[in-house]
Amino acid sequence: MMTTRQALGDASIASVDTPSELEEGGLGLSPTMAALKRARKHHGLKIGFGILLVMAVFALFAPWLAPHDPYLQNLSLRMLPPVWTEGGNWEYLLGTDHLGRDYLSRLIHGARISMTIGLGAASIGAVIGVTLGLIAGYFGGWIDQAVNFLVTCQLAVPSLLLIMALVFVIGQSVTVVIFVIGATHWVFYLVVTRSATLRLRELDFVAAANAMGCSKFQIAVREVLPNLVNQIMVIFTLEVAVAILNEATLSFLGLGIPSPLPSWGLMIAEGKTAMFFQPWLVILPGIALFILVIAINLLGDGVRDVTVTNRRN
After folding, report:
1. Whose CA is closest to 256, among 154, 181, 159?
2. For 102-130, what is each residue's pLDDT tens digit?
3. pLDDT of 68-94, one tens digit each?
């Protein structure tokens, strides 16, 4: 007859996870390997990454992939429809615009401009916001109060109106648009970085570094900042999408990328006068903009999901 001790012992042995079970659940792996394991199972992340990879290839190799010069004008071929409609031809797959420029070539080169502005502006915002958030969260006191005052001032001014005013005063160019959008989109970086730093500075590893004689700068940069990478990556992906939409909005309003550069927002603005007769002039760059932004958002959501350290499959 089985004793109570034997029954409890068998139950405890049965409750212990085997190495294979631990590996299937993502336990027993390094944080990097566990995140990669979750990433392989995250469909949204794979879809977003795949779309972005394709668009990145088009953006990087635009001069070789574009069938025509995106700046070459031919008024005798203006307003050609896409190949699938009546009057279209295979030499100009997506037709031409009001100046006879190949629309497919301009869309491909437009991907380069949109991704450059998105990455550049998000990087500038990250540098400003993470720096201010790390300083405010770690040092606190009057520094934290001063940074919070800057955030309040920034939130009190509509960002789009501020961007429009700065671009109008400084002048239109790709560089100006990148710096202006980046300099006005750092608040989310700051808020997330500050709140995470306030929590991290109270943990034991920070106290240990302080006891070892490390300076505050060393602790903030070497101990606290590496633990903020996951949160910064998520905010970065979302801010890239926001920057791309802001650039398209500015170009549509005539205050963004100057003509004849192929910006998707500018292409929509140029095609709006003929949208009832040639709707593809507006629909095609709108679809490209939608696909790029939704891919970035899918990637950002996926990065957020797979970098949660306490998540188990």
Report:
1. 181
2. 999 999 999 999 999 999 999 999 999 99
3. 899 988 888 888 888 888 877 888 888
Average pLDDT over residues 235-255: 91
SS3 track for 58-117: HHHCHHHHCCCCCCCCCHHHCCCCCCCCCCCECCECCCECCCCCEHHHHHHHHHHHHHHH
Question: 196 vs 96, 105, 154, 229, 266, CA distance in Å?
Answer: 51, 44, 21, 11, 39
Domain that residue 300 falls in: 92-307
Coil/strand/helix, residue 165: helix
- As to burial, measured by CB atoms within 10 angstroms (0-12 exposed, 13-18 middle, 19+ buried), residue 212 is exposed
Residue 278 lies in a domain: yes
Which CATH number covers residue 132?
1.10.3720.10
Q: How many domains does the chain have?
A: 1
The 10 Å Cβ neighbour count of residue 208 is 12
Written as one letter, the residue type at 251 is S
Q: How far is CA 72 from CA 99, 100, 103, 147, 155, in A?
A: 9, 8, 11, 49, 43
The answer to whether 62 and 108 have CB atoms below 8 angstroms apart is yes
In 3D space, the residue among 225, 231, 180, 182 whose CA is nearest the CA of residue 201 turns out to be: 225
Residue 113 lies in a domain: yes
Q: What pTM, to 2 d.p., does this model score?
A: 0.83
